[in-house]
Amino acid sequence: MVYLVQSKEDLDQQLSDAGEKLIVIDFYANWCGPCKIIAPKLEELAQQYAERAVVLKVNVDDNEEITVEYNITSMPTFVFIKNGEVLELFVGGNSDKLAKSMEKYVGDDGEHLQQQRHQQLQQTSRTSESEAAISSASGSGSGACLSHELDEPDREPAAMNVQEVLEKERVLEN
């Protein structure tokens, strides 16, 4: 759940009550388009990490004292605090960065480790698929690997850049 901070005293109480949980403060304005766009993602993350994080929203127009204290000049601005220490601050409505930052600071629980392992396995699988595509296309140049990728538009791109593909092809040709 996202908590709407009403005053400086309210914020101080929320920070105190959070204990060792991660605190994410969203500095926003009602008239801010990017703030409105990212709000549903923030709510989703607040629910997902409810046991390990406290998500607070501070309206910059209604809470000037807090805005000045945190030196907020743009919205949305996200401040990550744990054990009284500011860990990170970033500006903008980047929902991927918000999710990654929350994941980074809430701690490595089993679910997080399981997601990391899954991503590593996917990475290994994509690299193996790319290597197989390159070796099957050894006589036809790099176009075969690219057309293989284009034949599967729903497939995530291989974990190789063009330079790596060309280098592997040169090795196979020699």
TrEMBL record:
Q: Which domain of life does this protein belong to?
A: Eukaryota
Q: Give me the stretches of Low complexity compositional bias.
A: 120-139
Q: Which UniProt keywords apply?
A: Disulfide bond, Electron transport, Redox-active center, Transport
Q: Which GO terms describe its molecular function?
A: protein-disulfide reductase activity
Pfam families registered for this protein in UniProt: Thioredoxin
Please list the residue ranges annotated as the Thioredoxin domain: 1-107
Annotated spans, Disordered: 120-159
Under the heading NCBIfam families, the entry gives: thioredoxin
Name of this protein: ThioredoxinT
Where does this protein come from, organism-wise? Drosophila willistoni (Fruit fly)
Q: What is the lineage of its organism?
A: Eukaryota, Metazoa, Ecdysozoa, Arthropoda, Hexapoda
